[in-house]
Amino acid sequence: MDALRVLNPMAPLASLDGIVLRPIALPVRPDWATIFGRDAPLLLEIGIGNGEFLVWLAKRHPEANCLGAEIAREFLIKARNRIRNEGLTNVRLLPMEGGQALSRLFAPESLSGLWLNFPDPWHKRRHQKRRLVDEAFAWLLASRLCVGGTFVMVTDYEPYAQEVLAFFSACPAYAPLWETPMRSELSDYYDTKYARKWKALGRPLFYLGFQKVQSVAEPDWLASVYPLAALRGDEPMPQVELCVGQPVDWDRLWREVPREVLWRSEDGVIVVKEAYHSDERLLLDVIVAEGKLTQRFFVVVHPHGQGILVRLHEASHADPTKGVHLAVALIAKALTTLLPDAQITQTTCSPSVWRELADVNAGGGSSEPS
Fold it and tell me: Contacts for 24-32 with beta carbons within 8 Å, 24 or more apart?
């Protein structure tokens, strides 16, 4: 239980007045009309701070359903209280990282607007890859915005502003929202705490605005950066059934099961951190990092029919990305080497995963089940 609580540190916030949503309870591409009780345009702010801008946005657009993504608990509580005190019913909060929320929760061309107020610029060169807005983000947002949808960002860090300007200008989905896409003033824009602070210090601000003017096909590489963007919501959870010809020595299997890096590529890594066991059950602690997404979950191995089943533990809440499918397939493949008579008989793992494993092991026999 302690391990699962670590995996979901925001769980205690799940039922705060119906304002703070629980990510693990939200399906991929949820029905926002059901959640809000009405069908309305969707507006999103990533990084809400104390919630004052989001409240201003919701009051300015009462016809819209407004969402705010934030990972800091103290900000979520402040924003929740502000929303409740204002009596707003068109706002919900997401305890999620912004890119994950955008790629997982919003269907293509479903979002009407996105705002970023003073995102972390990660000044140091070695940290710049952590910036939220990059080329991949511009393309991801292009897929999620409806035609006519808008993106507005404000920052006090000019190098970051120039990069964002270049990324959005290079994507053919967008056109500048104003005659000049980057401005130093925006008269009808709400000044957040940081805006007021920097203006008082005389520091210049940079406002960037773009509008989606046409639909464009997602580049093939986008899913390697944002794997959740490739999900439709109806993918099966990965599992593999193994037929074994003799009783399984679970103690030996626990001792010999790999606790190591199972897969590494330029896009990510799959690691088994630890293994646990009971009389006839293994529990593997697995980390899958792919692109900008890292998921940690448990894979369980247990008797099933005439063999054993490899699947995600029911207490895990991983999304079935390609990396998660690959992790289950790799664990099943490792078990076939530890149980020489074992054969894969059935699987819900993606066929592309087995083909990829077969390509890697070309010359040593196919990994794909018959």
Answer: 24/317, 26/105, 27/233, 28/104, 28/105, 28/228, 28/231, 28/232, 28/233, 28/319, 29/104, 29/105, 29/106, 29/107, 29/231, 29/232, 29/233, 30/105, 32/65, 32/110
Residue 231 tokens, joined: 């999900």
CA torsion 276-278-280-281 (nearest 10°) is -30
Query: What letter does residue 68 receive in the DSSP assignment?
Result: E
Alpha helix ranges (H) inside the chain: 2-7, 32-36, 52-60, 73-86, 98-105, 135-144, 158-170, 193-200, 222-225, 250-256, 322-338, 351-360
Torsion over CA of 23, 92, 70 and 104, rounded to 10 degrees?
A: 40
Cα 323 from Cα 326, distance rounded (Å):
5
One-letter amino acid at 70 equals: E
List the domain boundaries for the chain.
Answer: 2-230, 239-360
For residues 327 and 286, is the Cβ–Cβ distance under 8 A? yes
120 is catalytic: yes
Q: How do strand 239-243 and strand 307-312 relate by DSSP bridges?
A: antiparallel
- In angstroms, the CA 295 to CA 7 distance is 9
Only one residue has tokens 């205690």, namely 12
Secondary structure (H, E, C), 120-184: CCCCCHHHHHHCCCCHHHHHHHHHHEEEEEEEEEEECCHHHHHHHHHHHHHCCCEEECCCCCEEC
**pLDDT tens-digit profile of 123-162?**
777 766 789 999 999 999 999 999 999 999 999 999 999 9
- Please report, rounded to a whole number, the percentage of residues in the chain having pLDDT higher than 70: 92
C-beta separation of 173 from 148 below 8 A: no
In angstroms, how far apart are the furthest CA atoms of the chain? 76
From the list 240, 239, 220, the residue with the least C-alpha distance to 230 is: 220
CATH of domain 2-230: 3.40.50.150
| 266: its two tokens | 């330029």
**Of 2, 31, 39, 120, which one is the catalytic site residue?**
120
State the sign of the Cα–Cα–Cα–Cα dihedral 31, 348, 307, 273: negative
Q: Tell me: the pLDDT tens digits for 171-223?
A: 999 999 999 999 999 989 999 999 999 999 999 999 999 999 999 999 999 99
- pTM, two decimals, is 0.89
